[in-house]
Write a structure and sequence with these properties.
heterodimer, A: mainly beta, nine-stranded mixed beta sheet, five-stranded antiparallel beta sheet, 1 helix, 7% helix, 38% strand, B: mainly beta, four-stranded antiparallel beta sheet, globular
């Protein structure tokens, strides 16, 4: 009996010994299952992906990178394993990262002005968990609606604007009921706009950092799932008219405000 | 049987004790506020203060000598500034040590880049703020920018903005060249020098072709291999300096993986007489002592190791400074054995155990080594 207790004590002590020095280390996995070019005349390029601490395409060393051949359609999922970080606050188990996706339009082998980019997308990873993004839309043409997913071109002289997105229930954002974020000159962006980004995964629906000089931003969730902003379909909208796009802009979507 | 139980119990007690101290077990610690240093070092000054807010570990982000007191003719008021990062609390300011003591100076509204701190010829220190190099002093406990030293966008008559500007004036000498600015032009790095920081930089000029790409390709741990699209050719210039006597320029260059916190810092050097050749070695150059480049090696407290090299980055020897952290501060003229002597000054910081008020006692000390024997040892 005594021996059993002693052994138990030793085991507990050993576990404490191993765990005590490493309790601030966090580790997570990120999976991107698919990237689609949904334009009417898809280019289906090979895109470059990076997971970054900051929403910057050009600054800092990118340790987690991959390329993805959209043309293959079912290209193997992008999997970033062993994403580790140290957390000073022992109670914090998650951390914010930024997902960067770009297309090397000039073939210069390095990211440069003119390359097509999606806005940097905020993604939160949790310690010990695998986060899966089912789909990301990467369009490469500039056709008008109904093919409205316009990309941005990296431009060093344009400002970077942060758009924080708050949705009462993030599970509303799915491949069938996408979140669309529009940028443009008009006060009312329900009809005309310059850029529109489609988001079909709740994991990347909480924030964007956009390289643009457009003055206004507006968003809606295609609740009806018909692929368009549809009057009378109770699509959730961020505001009646667009919001001024400031350095930091909040978009709030909830069932109390519908189109 | 009884003996057996006692033995097992003893093992359990030892294991529990090990577990409780495991994070500190076998970890070296700084045992004294002012630790002894290697032969050849002379203690110039030490002072302490208790910061009730400070509880965690301490790391020196950048540190330099006070530009005026390091060259005064009295030799008894050498001062220095330390920008530190404390894990549990961001100390938003810097420590200032002089003959009065050690105190904490608030940063206030200044938005300078801490790691860009360098020694200037006047009171206080130089530091980058946006595209400017400004002179910052301790104004009764608050940081004050008293002068704009250079606007890097207009430091020369042509339209190429400077990357950096530094001042070098070894103690006891008056070199013709006191200021040097570095410029990036594509892959090339150009240097322009003069006796005046704002005169437009005439001669001599040095240009190192492809120096930038050479530096980028020299990273070993955080290399661009495997992810050239995102990382090829990209790195950060952390700091710049030059030796007016040994005629070379040096940079601290860095890649930083913000996700994992991994960092690779390298020293890069370019000789004036051999501008086509760029050399790099692993380590963080913290300044030059006359012609000797002082490069911090990867090391942990209480033994902070430095490599002392020439402008070709060929190593003279290694030295160790003892403390919780250390930094090379610059060169100065100080009394050694009663004689004004050109010296290289290192700073060390130690943090004592938490006191009754909840904070830790911080001690800064300044250690001088004769410049004449720094490279060879005494």
């Amino acid at each position: 009996m005594m021996r059993k207790r002693t052994i138990t004590l030793i085991v507990v002590a050993s576990i404490m010994l191993v765990a005590s020095c490493d309790s601030r280390q966090r580790m997570a996995t990120l999976v991107i299952e698919a990237i689609h070019d949904t334009s009417a005349t898809p280019l289906n390029p090979t895109v470059h992906i990076a997971l970054s601490e900051k929403p910057s395409f050009t600054e800092g060393y990118k340790a987690f990178t991959a390329s993805y051949d959209i043309a293959s359609g079912g290209s193997p999922a992008v999997v970033f394993t062993g994403i580790s970080w140290e957390e000073q606050d022992r109670s914090r188990k998650s951390r914010e990262f930024w997902l960067l996706i770009a297309y090397d339009t000039d073939g210069m082998d390095g990211i440069s002005e003119g390359d097509h980019i999606l806005p940097a997308m905020r993604v939160v990873l949790n310690d010990g968990e695998e986060t899966t993004i089912p789909i990301i839309y990467f369009d490469t043409t500039s056709l008008p609606a109904p093919d409205p997913d316009f990309l941005f071109s990296l431009n060093y002289s344009r400002p970077w604007k942060t758009v924080r997105i708050f949705i009462d229930d993030t599970s509303r954002v799915t491949p069938a009921t996408r979140l669309f974020v529009r940028f443009g000159n008009l006060i009312d962006l329900t009809a005309g706009f310059d850029h529109q980004i489609a988001i079909g995964a709740k994991e990347i629906a909480s924030g964007l950092v956009v390289n643009t000089d457009m003055p206004n931003v507006w968003a809606y969730i295609d609740t009806s799932g018909d692929g368009n902003l549809t009057a009378g379909a109770n699509e959730l909208i961020s505001s009646l008219t667009s919001n001024p796009l400031n350095d930091y802009t909040n978009l709030i979507l909830y069932s109390g405000l519908v189109y | 049987m009884m003996q057996h139980r006692v033995a097992l119990s003893a093992v359990a007690v030892v294991a529990l004790a090990l577990a409780s101290v495991s994070c500190n077990f076998m970890m070296p610690t700084a045992n004294y506020p002012v630790m002894r240093q290697e032969k050849g070092f002379h203690l110039i000054r030490s002072a302490s203060m208790t910061n009730v807010w400070f509880r965690g570990d301490i790391k020196i982000v950048a540190a330099v000598l006070d530009g005026a007191s390091s060259r005064d003719a009295v030799y008894d008021n050498l001062g220095a500034y330390f920008i530190v990062d404390a894990k549990d609390l961001k100390l938003d300011g810097f420590f200032h040590i002089d003959s009065v003591g050690l105190r904490l100076v608030n940063r206030g509204s200044l938005q300078y880049e801490p790691e860009s701190m360098s020694q200037g010829p006047e009171e206080g220190f130089w530091i980058r703020q946006g595209g400017l190099i400004i002179q910052v002093i301790d104004a009764s406990g608050s940081a004050l920018d008293v002068a704009q030293i250079a606007n890097l966008g207009t430091v020369t008559a042509d339209l190429v903005p400077a990357l950096w500007m530094d001042w070098d004036h070894p103690p006891g000498t008056t070199p013709a060249e006191r200021y040097r600015a570095s410029f990036i032009s594509g892959n090339d790095i150009t240097f322009r020098s003069d006796i005046d920081p704002l005169s437009g930089g005439a001669s001599p000029d040095y240009s190192s072709s492809a120096a930038r790409s050479f530096m980028a390709n020299s990273f070993e741990e955080l290399s661009a291999t495997g992810s050239p699209y995102w990382n090829d050719g990209r790195f950060e210039f952390k700091r710049f300096g030059f030796s007016s006597t040994a005629e070379y320029s040096w940079f601290a260059i860095r890649r930083f993986d913000g996700v994992s916190g991994r960092e690779e810092t390298r020293a890069a050097a370019i000789l004036d007489i051999e501008p086509g050749a760029t050399r790099t070695v692993r380590g963080e150059p913290q300044g030059n002592a006359g012609g000797v480049l002082v490069i911090r090696q990867e090391s942990k407290a209480p033994a902070i190791r430095y490599s002392l090299t020439d402008g070709r980055l060929d190593e003279y020897r290694k030295i160790t400074i003892y403390g919780d952290d250390a930094y090379y501060l610059g060169d100065s003229l100080e009394l050694i054995d009663g004689v004004p002597t050109p010296v290289a000054v290192f700073g060390a910081i130690t943090a004592g155990p938490e006191g009754k008020e909840g904070g830790r006692r911080i001690t800064a000390s300044l250690w001088a080594h004769r410049l004449s024997t720094l490279a060879e040892g005494e």
